[in-house]
Design goal:
The protein has about 100 residues and is mainly α. The protein has one domain: Orthogonal Bundle (Cytochrome Bc1 Complex, Chain D, domain 2). It is about 55% helix and about 0% strand. The protein contains 5 helices and no strands. It has helices at about 1-20, 25-40, 55-60, 65-70, 85-95. Helix 2 crosses helix 5 (about 85-95) and helix 4 (about 65-70) crosses helix 5. About 20% of the residues are buried. Residues about 20 have low confidence and may be disordered. The structure holds heme C. Heme C binds near residues 38, 70 and 76. Heme C binds near residues 70, 74 and 78.
Length: about 100
């Protein structure tokens, strides 16, 4: 599942990554990554879909726990770190999804 998913999305990701030169952990960059990678399962505003709703996640998990969930997700979610997402990407995304209310 993971290999298939990566094969299907890697080209798009690489084009995306190459186009980015914003500061690391930048909010806009995290938003763009979220929309291109995570929204397909979690919804553009974290409303949920195949993946769990991420709305209100800041009330359920600490920033550290959120980072951990992205780095080492349960099997239903693809493990994107460290192949696709860097340490900074994960931190930026964790901060970004915590803004969903
Ligand atoms: C292929 C679909 C899919 C993609 C793509 C995906 N997720 Fe998930 N995600 C899931 C599923 C399914 C779960 C629930 C796993 C479980 O706990 O059973 C989940 C769980 C999570 C959780 C834990 C939520 C909680 O309340 O415990 C976080 C945080 C998360 N995803 C963030 C992300 C981020 C950030 C991205 C993009 C980098 C992403 N996900 C991409 C499917 C996906």
């Amino acid at each position: 599942m993971r290999a298939l998913w990566c094969a299907a999305s890697f080209a798009a990701w690489c084009a995306f990554a190459a186009a980015q030169d914003a500061p690391q952990g930048d909010f806009q960059r995290a938003k763009t990554s979220f929309e291109s990678i995570c929204a397909v399962c979690h919804g553009a505003k974290g409303e949920g879909g195949v993946g769990l709703p991420l709305k209100g996640i800041a009330e359920r998990l600490t920033l550290e726990q959120t980072i951990e969930k992205i780095k080492n997700p349960n099997p239903a979610m693809p493990k994107l770190y460290p192949e696709v997402l860097s340490e900074d990407d994960v931190a930026g995304l964790a901060a970004y999804i915590r803004s969903f209310r």
